[in-house]
Structures are given as C-alpha cells and as structure tokens.
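=== Given protein ===
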Amino acid sequence: MNIMLFHSTYGLRPAVHSAAERLEAAGHRVWTPDLFEGRTFETVEEGMAFKEELGQEELLRRGIAASAPHSDSGLVYAGFSLGASVAQNLALGDERARGLLLLHGTSDIADDASVDELPVQLHIADPDPFEPHDWLTAWYLRMGRAGADVEVYRYPGAGHVYTDPDLPDYDEESAEQTWRVALAFLDSV
C-alpha cells in the first residue's frame, strides 16, 4: 500500500520517521512530507501559532503538492493530529483514495462530501482535549453520511499524541495497540 503520512503540529519529528519505518517494515511504501519546511516545535501552542501564520489554505496546498505525484496509484492518507486533519481533507477530495488512517485528530467535513465506502480508521485518546466526545459523535455521523466506512478506537487515559515517545502524552501500551490495529487495517484496504 502507498501511504502519505502527515506530521502533527509539532512538525516532522523523529516519531513520524519511526512510524514510517514501522509501516515500511510491514511492506508499505510511505512518504512523509514536511509541511512546515524544516520547522519543529516543542509545544502544541508554538506549532499552532505557526500553523495559523501559515494558514489552512497554504497547509492544504502543500499537502496536495506532496501527494499529487503519487495519487494515481491510490493512496492511503494518514496523519497525526493536525496531519490527520490534512489527510482527511485530501482523502475526501481524492476519488482514488484507498483509505484514511487518522491518529489523534479529525477535521470538519463539507456538507457535500461524498466517498464510495472509503475505509476510515480513527485512533483517539479518551478523553482528548482537542477532540471532545460531542465533536467526535457529530464527526462520526457526518463521515457515515458522506459514505465512509468508519472505525473508531478510543484509548482511555492516553494523552493527545500518545504515539510519540518524545512527548509527555506518550502511552506505550496504547501506542502499541494502535499500531497493531492500524497495521491490520492497512493490510485490509
């Protein structure tokens, strides 16, 4: 499977490269575009401030530019937190998308979004300060109305970006469970 894996608001950190290596070891081809052009951040607040300065349109433009050379083969779009938001927007706009793997985040869904049974898997902390329960319920229903086949996995007690061992949110047990389930998902699409 060809996977476009987008980083979080922290930037393209070692955890993203480690995730790509894990996916490649399972037989997938993975691209990890740097949407922040080399910038990384120590806090969510710093990363979000940079994202706001950059703007959502520019962030999506960069995501599209990174994905376009590979999209003919049918990509699985994937991402961490902010990168999940980018991945979701691109997958919903790409009729050749093979799947969507969301780690720690979601995005708004356009009223006219439509996909043909796109396989979607979301892994999320429970609770997650950036993805409250009412938001996730509405998101799930809207994804279903758009035609997606959605699975949601919640990880009680984990922090927001719990798969990154260099962050305080890290939860080893939840991270390993996430990767086991995600790899099975990728093998099925």
The chain has six helices and six strands. The chain has one domain: 2-188. The first helix runs from residue 14 to 25. The longest strand covers residues 119-126.
